[in-house]
Amino acid sequence: MSVEYKITIRTSDRLGAGTDGEISVVLIGTHGESEQHKLDKRFHNDFEAGSVDTFELVTQELGELLALRFTNTKGLTADWLLDSAEITSGEKSWYFPHFRWVLSNSTAEVLVGTARLPQHVQHEREMLARRAQLENRRQMYPWRPAEATAGLPGTLDISEQQPLPKDELYRGLTEGSYTAVIAKTITTLKLHMPVLTNAWNGLVDTLNLFKHLEIPKLAQRWQDDYEFARQAVQGVNPVHIKLITALPDGMPLTDGDVRGLLSPGSSLAQTLAAKRVFLLDFEILEDIPMFRKVDEEGVEERRWAPAARGLLYLDDTRQLRPIAIQLGRDPAQAPVFTPNDSEYDWLAAKIYLRCSEGNTHQMVTHAIRTHFVVEPFVMATMRNLPDPHPVYKLLRRHFRYTLAINDGARKGLLDKGGVFDDFIATGGPDQGHIKLGQKGYLRWKLADNKPRLDFERRGVLDPAILPYYPYRDDALPLWDAIEEYVGGVLGHFYKSDADLVADAEMQAWWADLTERGLPADKLPCTQLTRVADLVDILTTVIFSGSVQHAAVNYLQYEHYAFVPNAPLCMRREPPRKKGVLGPDDIVEMIPTKSQTMWQVAIGRALASFGDDEEYLLHEGGWREEYFKEPGLAALQQRFQERLRTQLDAVKARNAKSEVPYTVLQPDRIPCGITV
């Protein structure tokens, strides 16, 4: 018996998504396969970018549809970015989400979109399609050899023979690719270099660089102590502030040193006991090699980022301000500076501490704890979960472009000869920044990325202890919303822990992840047998790639572009005595003209949003729709409602704030790591 099927095909609206190739399709169902149908309407340009094309096919009755086999041939610009297909026949309908390329002169099977665990697949042809898809993906997504990633998370292996899959290729940012943004910014800066003085004075001349760029708002207040402390709770690296009730070992600070800096009549010991002192500590930099290189003429260049630490005080106005900074661990070599010291001693101490924070931020807080720990989950998912698996559907939107940006970062920033060698303190021949990343990864566990546990560990969860902490107050509701959504989705499919144990695809995912990506001792469990553990892991992964990455990435231009605020290298050894510094010494310490340009350009590029960015709270809904099940639509709607409530709360707080904190607005948090 012949049956009419209507197929509606959506082509992506991305530039270059359309095809002039010849597209044909075979419908695959429980009762067999159709003949091959060429999809072509006369006098119509089919499959243009952003188009929706509908065709009617007549073939034998195929039962329940399981897959569509698309073949793409004969075009000059034939690679085709297929978003989805929908087929109707009478009252029946089937949805086939894809959101990937169908390459020229190739065939691709698109599996039906009904989310199913493997043990719930009833037809052998459907199971064969899932297995075939994974066999193909494992060829496309090979792990890099373990010896090449020693001391770091597992990564995708990319070479000339094994290029990045086209599905993962990086899209442009609003002003082009991030490398184009860097190049464009460098060009703009160089155009204005002739108007600068020959004798570069970074404290003065940096502002002249911004004639055709936005001036970071903090440039007008960067030397203020309250501004320095504000950056610890809502700056680009707000994850270090820690409550202390006793002075750190090796920090010789006395009541005389802080005279006039505390509440009248209060001693340092009383202030510590009252839980009004907080620590910023970058001891992780101890023993990390710093840049040191001798050029062909025998001139040595060195850079410093000391293992610095500083104390912040919650004063009687309930605001934080710095009261002590030590640029090292040895009290004999590293005096403790305070606001009672000379103007230039204190300014230098703050700049050095920010430099230490910047090197730690770039390699540990940002690169390791978001970019590179998410990558193994991308790899395990692409290699082991077929399109219809509910966990694939849950995660895929959060993994867009992560492999591409990580590959770009390794090649352009981190590898020998990369940009980091040009301007950060830990870069250079000894690859100190890589050693810093390895040291950060060695200390890290996935649970460290859970915000509530992190705040508790640092003693700053309670607003009564630390009243103003926008990062904390914005991150926690977002975590809770993600956790509820992930738990709801997984609970829809896993009715018991036994369902997870029986899920062969997820068990393969876990084995692949722990054998090649992240060792089990960095994860909250050694075996994947509890749905609660899976909820915890996937919530942490999504949070890390969206909320956490946004927090530590998108303020980079504001934080780093006015370089004296937070230079990524210092060109002099930290001062070992008090009272000897003057303004000329500060000028000689901070980055050169060239280093300043690189820091501005990198900060601008990494703080850019994509022209196809998809946000957690996305106007009109997410563009890539993977789930069609009514129960899951309700969960998604609930998630969006919680995000809208949080957006209103952020806007209300910022309306009263002297310095708004907008980076964790749900409508400005990309779903994943895209830059």
UniProtKB/TrEMBL annotation:
Pfam families: Lipoxygenase, PLAT. Keywords: Lipid metabolism, Metal-binding, Oxidoreductase. This is Lipoxygenase family protein. InterPro entries: LipOase, LipOase_C, LipOase_C_sf, PLAT/LH2_dom, PLAT/LH2_dom_sf. It comes from Archangium lansingense. Transmembrane segments: none annotated. Residues 115-675 form the Lipoxygenase domain. It comes from the Bacteria. Residues 3-116 form the PLAT domain. The keyword Oxidoreductase applies. Coiled coil: none annotated.
